[in-house]
Amino acid sequence: MGTLSIVATPIGNLEDVTLRALRTLKEADVIYAEDTRVISKLLARYEIKKPLQRLDAATEAKKADEIVARLEAGEHVAYVSDAGTPGVSDPGTRMVAAVRAALPAATIEAIPGPSALTAALSIAGIDTAEFTFLGFLPHKKGRQTALREIAEREIPTVLYESPHRIEKLLEELSALDVSRVVIARELTKMHEELLAGTPAELQAHFAAHPDAVRGEFVVIVVP
Ligand code: SAM
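A: This is the predicted complex of the input protein with S-adenosylmethionine.
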């Protein structure tokens, strides 16, 4: 029986990859990736040449069968998402569940590493003894309920947000009288910054610095 390795990859800075992740990617017979073009940059940087297969949210169930067959044939399969830890607001969990169900004896190992969630929490300067992680909020159905619950929660809520919606989110949090938000933008990249303030202050910041409404954002709503 083969091994399935779920490998965390950098969230920006290509140096943020563990020695074990590199060894695993080198040793694997095949690497399944959310997007083969994205992972190719990391593989090129570390001179790793491997057969690549795509496994994204749309193909997760179908490709799981393929992975099961490879594991039965004794192969070592690695899985990477586009950035950070697979399964954290990324594909991977349904495939892992399908492999576990089909092959209860298979070795499925975690190769831990970066995640925007933990990176943001580590520098936010807030009490992180407890927090709620919601990933991306729904765009329509359920959004208002989720926002109201966030505003009422007594522990921090961590969200992922895209640049297209960050200003709208701040407007919504402002309307709910949220008093403090921490935003970690472009973590580990050239334009990394951490912003904190009321939603209105952060709205004003983005209005004054349109260049800052770019990249990737982790939003922490602080009670
Ligand atoms: N699996 C990833 C992880 O472990 O963090 C998350 C993937 S999710 C599809 C992508 C979202 O994560 C982005 O929209 C952003 O909210 C957050 N993110 C990823 N990289 C980031 C970075 N370098 N700085 C800030 N947020 C980031």
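The longest strand covers residues 180-185. The chain has a mean pLDDT of 97.
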